[in-house]
Amino acid sequence: MCARCLRFFSFNDPKADTPKQKMLNQKTFLYESLSLPANVLSYEAGRRLSAYAAPRYVREINLWSFAVQPFAEDGRCSYVPIAESHQQIPNDGHHKGQLTYSTQNAWHRVVWEGHSMELVAFQWSAGYSTEDRVFLIAPSEAIADDFVRVVCAWNEEVRAEILVFHEGSWFKDEELYQATQDVRFDDIVLPPSLAEALQRDLWGFFHAQEQYEHYKIPWKRGVLLYGPPGNGKTHAIKAILNTVQKPRLYVKSFESGCCTAHENMRRVFERAREVSPCVLIFEDLDSLLNDKNRSFFLNELDGFSSNHGILALATTNHIERLDVALVKRPSRFDRKYLFDIPGYNERLRYIGRWNDRLEPALRVDLSAQTELASQTDGFSYAFIKELFVSGIMAWIQQAEDGAMHTVLREQCALLREQIHLQDTDNSPKDSE
Asked: 15 and 114, same structural domain?
């Protein structure tokens, strides 16, 4: 062991008799702690802090939900850096002109409900990932535990956010939440029967708990939205996220550098069970599952654990890639809704909505809209959207009143060629 580590271990021995030996230098404590081998760092840091804090109580915390900074920003406590210690709080992001920060290695003073406490945070490298540890110095064990419980409960509440699981951890995605706020089912162009059935199934589930329990039916549901890309599945998910007044959990991936896919799947379903009744969303389910993790996912979805109150909602562009046990077995995804290429009536409604959004000089009359609806047979909603976007760009070069109809007709022909090429590329090839 290096001389610096030996000095660290011998300095501030809890059994030392002299006050000088029991002192702790806040200016160098973080640096000296981080100089220790990773396998003893948290233990030795806790040992020294216990000697420094006596007779106060030191609680070591390793919980993702123990985030004091946002709790303090909400006015629940004060959270002030201690001047004697260098604070390592780097910028970790920039969004819409605002810088974001993350505590890496820092020492803060916290005041909560009249109790003065200290919070010491560490972060160090551990293999291909990092380890985080927080030490709370409180007047007593009871106060420390009360504070940890209150902070964790506050952070675990899902308010004006959507809880997202990605790269092995949960985080609250305010940006995704904001992206759903203007999307409602009335804004989505779908066949009326599909829109009505989907809404009735979703809302009926959450209002039917007593009936499920009365008839001894497990109160859970699996819903699968499937069909070719660009036909409204994502918009339907956004509408659901906007209108369902239950906790909303969204899974981006099961892969991470620190945990296996099985461990992450278990964490996802455990979290959903904690906050149920809730909506648990798996977008592009076929990309989340593979031969190694599929069986474990099926067991979490429909195994021995109770998924009481969980509405599992998944989407896929390729239902043929999903295992038969997942698609056809009852009690897993037992409700399936096809989001297919839109028919004439849906195309005409969608074209009309896009036309209404345009500036007056760019709009086309009803006869032109009906012509476009006929010419776009086989177009997805995404391609019809591209028709208008590319049409606007082409019109800008001419900027002539009345020219938009001609421009859209030309763009429609170009997009039809692209669709034909896509269909050719995706068609089965004869074996050689």
From this structure: yes
Q: Which two tokens stand for residue 381?
A: 């909603």
In sequence order, what are the beta bridge partners of 120? Answer: 107, 135
Residues 306 and 258 in one domain: yes
| Domain identity same for 208 and 227 | yes
Per-residue pLDDT tens over the stretch 45-68 = 999 999 999 999 999 998 778 999
Residues 6+ apart with CB under 8 A from 281: 237, 240, 241, 248, 249, 250, 251, 313, 314
Quickly tell me which residue has 């990605």 as its tokens.
Answer: 166
Integer Cα distance of 211 and 217 in angstroms: 8
Which amino acid is residue 150, in one-letter code?
Answer: V
Q: Which residue has the higher pLDDT, 366 or 28?
A: 366
Mean pLDDT of all residues in 140-168 = 90
For 312-321, write each residue's pLDDT tens digit. Answer: 999 999 999 9
H or E element: which one contains 204? helix 192-206
User: In this structure, are residues 78 and 91 in contact, taking their beta carbons and an 8 Å threshold?
Assistant: no
CB count in 10 Å sphere of residue 73: 10
> CA 385, CA 355: separation in Å to the nearest integer?
11
Tell me what pLDDT residue 91 has.
81
Low-confidence winner among 37-41, 125-129, 220-224, 369-373 (lowest mean pLDDT): 125-129
Tell me: do 132 and 214 sit in the same domain: no
Spatial distance between the Cα atoms of 181 and 176, rounded to a whole number of angstroms: 9
Q: Which of 311, 338, 365 is the C-terminal boundary of a domain?
A: 338
Same domain (yes/no): 106, 35 = yes
* Cα separation, 421 vs 200, whole angstroms: 39
Helices (H), 244-293: 261-275, 285-288
What is the domain extent for residue 152? 3-157
Regarding whether 212 and 319 lie in a shared domain, the answer is: yes
Residue 237, token pair as written in the block: 């998910």
Give me the pLDDT at residue 231, please: 95
Enter the tokens of residue 84: 């004697």
Helix, strand, coil % over all residues of the chain, rounded to 5: 45, 20, 35
How many angstroms separate the Cα of 165 from the Cα of each of 283, 314, 334? 12, 15, 24
The rounded mean pLDDT for the chain is 87
CA distance linking residue 220 with residue 46, whole number of Å: 44
Q: Which of 240-254, 290-304, 339-353, 393-407 has the lowest mean pLDDT?
A: 393-407
Residue 162 lies in a domain: no
* Distance separating alpha carbons of residues 212 and 227, to the nearest angstrom: 30
